[in-house]
Hints:
By secondary structure, the protein is mainly alpha-helical. Helix 1 crosses helix 2, helix 1 packs across helix 6 and helix 5 crosses helix 6. The longest helix has 24 residues. The radius of gyration is 19 Å and the shape is elongated.
Amino acid sequence: MTGKERRQQLLDVGRKLFAEKGFDGTSIEEVAHRAGVSKPVVYEHFGGKEGLYAVVVDREMQVLLDGMVKALSVADHPRELLERAASSLLDYIEDSTDGFRILVRDSPVAASTGTFSSLLNDIASQVEDILGQQFSSRGYDAKLAALYAQALVGMVALTGQWWLEARKPKKDEVVAHLVNLCWNGLSHLDHKPKRRVRS
């Protein structure tokens, strides 16, 4: 195995263990054992458990952020952008369940490597820009875009955490209901919301 292949193998093993057991429940001994190497090999590549965890978290955050940025970069109606963003988060949860479990867990090194809340703030900034433009063009106070962006992103993220375990209703239905609440508000909910666009 080349050094690059070994590093990737250790990342894959570490990612699986951190998702299963969390940061505190994972040991370098177990990472080394599952990878079929000695502990010094893990230390050589990452300097320790904290270094391995930091790389795993950074990679997961980048994958999620890339998906959200792509979803929000389409010049589309704001309702469709909201739908794409919600769908992007649920796609990530579905496709990278282990990664999402790692991101939403607390750990002693989260502050140095980034946190799920800091990632959500990055996403909220993107949403704020979009909302600010929409608010201005429709005569609303653009200064409120930050508040609405935090509310929307927080609602979708918390729903995503719940859906991680529940997995019901189906993803498209969850997206439709999220957008229904965001777009129509409680006083104007559609009785049977449907998605308008497909990812």
